Amino acid sequence: MEFERYPRILDRKKEPKSSFWFGISLFLIGFFLTLISLNIYNPSLVPNELRVVSLNKKINILVLGCDEIFPEAVNGKLLWKGRSDTIILISCNPFKNTLNILNIPRDTKIRVPGHGVEKINYLNTIGGPTFTKKYLERLLRTRIDHYVIVNVQGLNKIIDEVGGIIIDVPQRMQYIDHTAMLYINLFPGKQLLNGEQAVGFLRFRHDLLADIGRIQRQQLFMRAVFKRLLDPIIFTKLPDVISIYKKTILTDLKPVEIIKIANFVRNVPSPNQNIVILPGEFGQRNQVSYWIPNPKEIDKVIKKLFYNEKDFFRFVRANPKEIKISVFNGSHKDHLLATKLTNLLREYGYTVLLAQDYESHVNMTKIYAQKANPEIALQVKNDIGNIGELLIGSLGDPKADVTILAGDDLVNLKVRTKK
Question: What residues contact residue 303 under an 8 Å CB cut-off, 6+ apart?
Fold first, then answer.
């Protein structure tokens, strides 16, 4: 009997060894599946050396949008020339999980040797994206790693390919230009825009703020795109979009780099998405309108956006008398909310530049830090009851330090006694 059981004893001794390797295999499979999942859905949790489909280095990208392009080969390299009516510098920082964006108005005044004073959107016509990149680096005093040129005429096809973009249209937009084949007819409110409608939304500039208003709508569009990228189905379509619409996008980025950037962008939380307009003001020279850059303020913004992000929310209470605020009432429940909010802010000593109604309905209040100054916006937010969402972005008068887009969550606002 003992002899018969002996082989079974040998079998039992082998089982722990096979179970061990089976467990190791399961662990490795689970590890790699988790690693891939984190790379796609939460890359900030993955060490840099293990980021296979997301960024593992900081990168600055110049994005130019042209209504009309003129292909030209220079030293064997294809360049797209033409006025760049959209100029954006994007900084992706995977170490801090931040996405910082600087909008440069197309009418920004710049001096170019051999050409004199020009508007900055003319640079791409002179020498293409590399030329634009060179002079922007001088203006901003920061490096730019790559460029992307988008032919706006083909952008509608890309938007249709991903199923449209949901945007909260802020105002009634109606404009027809048969020569430019531009037909815009949008009503205020949140809605799904197809490619043609989205391009019209981006190109519309027939309001009081002209190009600055258009830039502010570009910011709304960019935030909508970031949300759209959260859909895994949209993310899987990116390789097809890149390959199909090569006539719409020209870049020195490789396809794998674009996918890594897109994956990074889709995972940056809203509070870490900071969008600022190049500091400056409207001005004229020889009866030509320009956006006159403010070098001192530009240095401050660049340092905050591209270098010292850790100091973004260092709170030191500022003198309210030195802070300018714009107010919009987006609530449909209290038509006097802008007036009430203005009175409250003036009690604290703030200067209110503008108080008016907002055409689109807003549920949650948004407080915009217009000059990369979230510490100021946070102070204002606290003074109105710590209500609303704080954004680094722009809305309304560019001279304002902070803009409040009041929503339904502020309807119970009470006038307080000044501290």
Answer: none
